[in-house]
Write a structure and sequence with these properties.
Layout (H helix, E strand, L loop, with lengths): L3 E4 L7 H11 L6 E6 L2 H13 L2 E7 L4 E7 L3
Parallel strand pairs: 1-2
Antiparallel strand pairs: 2-4, 3-4
Helix pairs in contact: 1-2
């Protein structure tokens, strides 16, 4: 199975947050997605949203962007 990747490096909030919400909403329990963002405000907004909605999240500061490993937690 190919890992899911959502590249939002060209987007800024609120569009980055809206797209992240749309793509993570369809994840099933245990499913993963990697999200790339370049805007620190978008990274903070997406992080806040995911932490409130049963997602496990690991963020890495890459060279010029952030990589967010997201896993849908079981209920």
């Amino acid at each position: 199975m190919e890992p899911k990747v959502l590249d939002l490096r060209q987007e800024r909030c609120p569009m980055a947050l809206l797209l992240a919400k749309r793509h993570t909403k369809g994840l099933t329990s245990g499913e993963q997605i990697e999200i790339f963002v370049s805007d620190s405000n978008s990274m903070h907004d997406i992080t806040r949203f995911l932490q409130r909605h049963l997602f496990s999240l690991t963020c890495k500061d890459m060279d010029g962007y952030y990589s967010m490993q997201v896993i849908k937690e079981p209920f």
